[in-house]
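During the reporting period the student researcher (J.K.) took over the structure-prediction task from the postdoctoral fellow and processed the backlog of single-chain submissions. One of the processed entries is reproduced below for the supervisory committee.
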Amino acid sequence: MSPSRIAPPTSSDPSPIGLTKSQLAQFNEDGFLLIPDYLSKSTCTSLLETTHTMLRDFSLTDHPLTKFTTGSSSSNSSDDSSSDSHVSDNYFMTSHDKIRFFFEPTAFSTPTPSSPTSTLLKPKEHAINKIGHYLHGLSPPFSHISQSGPTGARNAAIARSLGFHDPRILQSMVICKQPEIGAEVPPHQDSTFLYTRPPSAVGWWIALEDATRGNGCLGFLRGSHRREPVRKRFVRKRGERETGTEFMDVDIGNTEEAWPRGLEALVNNDGKGGAVDGDGDEEEYTLGEVKAGTLVLIHGNLLHKSEQNLSGKSRFIYTFHVIEGSEARDENGQRWQYDERNWLQPPEGGEFTRLKGSS
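J.K. obtained the following structure tokens:
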């Protein structure tokens, strides 16, 4: 495990007008921002009740038992066989307009010659890694804290503070970080998985329960968004007979592909930015221990991670991600591009949810 230290919380600001100048300066400097008391305790309790109801009520009868991992593997399959893998890949890649359930890999037994079929080792409601990816559209309680009502209005104001022209919510998830089996999430950048050209992703990460060192709170490589280009993209495989996902390289010498607009001036001539070695896993990570109700804003280029949850306490959070939409233009009239290689695609004939903050 790399060294770490604790991040102090940013003072809460109940104003609906977005970020203060000091908050914006801290986000631009660090690549993340902690805003405590963003949601009330009662709201967190209600959202947890909604989540536990979904976990209790979803059916295993027609579920492909898809596992979710965030490591270097390109598979989200429940099995190595081609037919089961294809079903699981489809379950994952067609979740853009649905609420679906993805299991922790360690929630299943390991197949053996005498017992070749994996079986669940935990009750299903204690075995799910995450629920996604359209909670902001299909679940009224989660929609209300994402895109509508007072919290939706504040989210839209924060997006404007961050410089978004046409903010779009493209995915939302509850990440469960289950007791004893909640998986480690290695260092990564959100723009790898939610790629625009140039990169534009920002994550809204809201703790529904206290997040501590013991149950796998986030860790941030402070300032790495200003030093580390997006090196890879998580994309759909190409070819008529290909299914599933893979990682493809990004040209880090091309600032338009690897760096958000506004950070190009920090890039060296080689396009690397120069201060992070690999994934930065040996550098000091700042721990984000936060109370329930805290909002954490995460820059898409920032390296961040979380450790395995070996404790007896869960760490449920809700997160959604925002990118620049198709109607956005920069000061030079240039668009941001979201292409067909991305694993997550908008509804057929439609577009991602505009973050307007209306009721």
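The committee noted the following: Residues 41-57 form the longest helix (17 residues).
J.K. will present the remaining backlog at the next meeting.
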